[in-house]
Specification:
The chain is an all-alpha fold. The chain has helices at 8-24, 29-63. The chain is built from two helices and no strands. Helix 1 packs antiparallel against helix 2. The longest helix has 35 residues, at 29-63.
Length: 67
């Protein structure tokens, strides 16, 4: 599934699961490379969502009103 269709929580869980599998050494090389590529996408997506949330919080703090 593409990261854009996931919630932050689901994307982060997938990312941590990928990291665990890669660290365990249970994946063959080709699967590790594919997992790494997917991990890069998931990381970028999570960072984007966090940045959007941070900007929204800053906007709310400045305006003092819910958007």
């Amino acid at each position: 599934m593409e990261p854009e269709k996931l919630s932050f929580e689901d994307a982060y869980k997938q990312l941590t699961d990928l990291v665990k599998k890669m660290e365990s050494g249970e994946l063959p090389l080709a699967a590790s490379v594919a997992a790494y590529e997917q991990g890069i996408k998931l990381k970028a997506y999570c960072e984007q969502l966090l940045k959007e949330a941070e900007l929204k919080i800053e906007t709310l703090k400045v305006s003092g009103q819910p958007q």
